[in-house]
Automatic annotation (TrEMBL):
Transmembrane intervals: 95-118
Record keywords, A-Z: Membrane, Transmembrane, Transmembrane helix
Keyword Transmembrane attached: yes
Protein's UniProt name: Peptide ABC transporter permease
Length: 122
């Protein structure tokens, strides 16, 4: 069951009018449930459960749980999603660099030991 929060700041985001964030138009589907659209495309849902806003994207994947409607709306903004994706890409790149460096060090070390062993065995 959906209910509006007892918190006045959350009640100000009532289901009586559409909310607009950068690119997504938000419309109340029912009390405690907002539907977002980018143009004619479905962007996601925000559901108020207890005192938290649960966000799901256009695929039905959970994006997160937020304390305010504004934060929940911002979570689906394409620019915000792009920042999250870019941060994940940078982390993956760092990991690849570290793993490559570890591989090179391991290979050089193994080659050094193999060369020393081969030289000593002659």
């Amino acid at each position: 069951m959906h209910k509006l929060s007892d918190n006045p700041s959350k009640q100000s985001a009532s289901a009586t009018h559409a909310h607009r964030s950068d690119l997504i138009s938000w419309r109340p589907a029912q009390p405690g449930l907002w539907s977002g659209q980018i143009g004619f495309d479905f962007a996601g849902l925000i559901e108020l459960t207890d005192d938290e806003y649960v966000v799901t994207d256009w695929r039905g994947d959970r994006v997160g749980i937020f304390d305010s409607l504004a934060d929940a709306q911002r979570a689906l903004e394409p620019s915000h999603r792009a920042q999250i994706r870019d941060a994940a890409d940078r982390s993956a790149l760092r990991l690849n660099i570290i793993m490559s460096a570890a591989f090179v060090v391991t290979t050089v070390t193994a080659a050094s030991f193999a060369g020393a062993w081969f030289t000593a065995s002659l």
